[in-house]
Structures are given as C-alpha cells and as structure tokens.
C-alpha cells in the first residue's frame, strides 16, 4: 500500500450524493435565489447540475469543460477552459448557478465565475465539498473538508484506457 492509500479520505457514496444534492437545493431555495440556468463544470459538476436542475425545476442546463487535475493532488499550473464553451451571449442577463463537485483550490470555479462576469445578471456557486484553501467561497456547500475525496464515480479505475483500449 502506498502512503496515498493509507491516508484518511472523505468517502462519498451515491446515496450520500443524493442527500447532498437535495440539501444543496434546499439551501438555494432558502436563500431565495432562483437561477435561470445551471452551468455545470465537467466532469465532476455534471451530476450535481443535473440533480439541482430537477430539484429546482430548472430545465436550462449547460456545461463547461475545465481541465485542472491530472491525478491525485496533481494539477496543471492554471485551469483551462476546453472547447466548446457556452456562448456568453447565451447567458446574458440570466441568473446562473455554477455547479461543481469540489472547491479545492477554487481556481476552477474562479475561471468559470470570471467567464460569466459582466454577461450574466448574477452568478452563484454550488459545490458538494469545499476545502479550506479555496480562493472562492462557494455560496452553497454541502460539506467542508481538508481530506482527499473519493467520489463514487471516480473511486474505481476506468473500464477503458483511452490510450490503450480496454483496461481489463
């Protein structure tokens, strides 16, 4: 076992994820914010965005692809938005709820928030987890932790290795 494997981790199950989505949606409702669109940060924020869309009765969902993590605690210098990105004109004047799985450094949320700034009526952020070092304080958070998080969708290796065919 590597030291990575023996470190304490935050474990999110699909069942807990369902509870997290509902509780985050309740926070949004309780705050009085009524988003016109939910902008999910792919890949981690897609499930949250879909769940919030149903819970908040928002059918206008969009996604933006941001690359930052390359492995456990390995990341690029700065996050980059990958094409295709939603056209800023499509968001003009709308109230946007930006959804992601975790605000770790917060830089991914920061780049998407900056993308929206000046175009949208208002944008707020929702995450399942927030870490203390995040440069952005999300508006809606289910849980705060400083541990590495095992998400149910990424805790197992992929079935396919895109660089070499089937994984096993």
TrEMBL record:
Superkingdom to which the source organism belongs: Bacteria
Stated name of the protein: Phosphoribosyltransferase
Assigned keywords, A-Z: Glycosyltransferase, Transferase
One GO MF term attached to the UniProt entry: glycosyltransferase activity
Keyword set includes Thylakoid: no
PANTHER family assigned to the protein according to its UniProt record, in alphabetical order: HYPOXANTHINE PHOSPHORIBOSYLTRANSFERASE, HYPOXANTHINE-GUANINE PHOSPHORIBOSYLTRANSFERASE
CDD domains noted in UniProt: PRTases_typeI
Residues covered by the Phosphoribosyltransferase domain: 11-154
Matching Pfam families: Pribosyltran (PF00156)
InterPro entries to which the protein is assigned, alphabetical: PRTase-like, PRTase_dom
Coiled-coil ranges per UniProt: none
């Amino acid at each position: 076992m590597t030291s990575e494997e023996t470190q304490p981790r935050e474990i999110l199950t699909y069942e807990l994820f369902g509870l997290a989505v509902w509780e985050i949606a309740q926070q949004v409702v309780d705050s009085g914010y009524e988003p016109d669109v939910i902008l999910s940060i792919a890949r981690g924020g897609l499930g949250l965005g879909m769940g919030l869309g149903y819970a908040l009765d928002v059918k206008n969902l969009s996604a933006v692809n941001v690359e930052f993590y390359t492995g456990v605690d390995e990341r690029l210098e700065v996050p980059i938005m990958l094409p295709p990105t939603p056209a800023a004109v499509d968001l003009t004047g709308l109230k946007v709820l930006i959804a992601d799985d975790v605000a770790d450094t917060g830089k991914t949320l920061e780049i998407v928030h900056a993308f929206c700034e000046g175009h949208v009526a208002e944008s707020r952020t929702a995450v399942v987890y927030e870490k203390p070092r995040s440069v952005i304080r999300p508006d809606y958070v289910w849980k705060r932790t400083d541990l590495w998080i095992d998400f149910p969708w990424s805790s197992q290796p992929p079935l396919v290795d895109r660089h070499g065919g089937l994984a096993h």
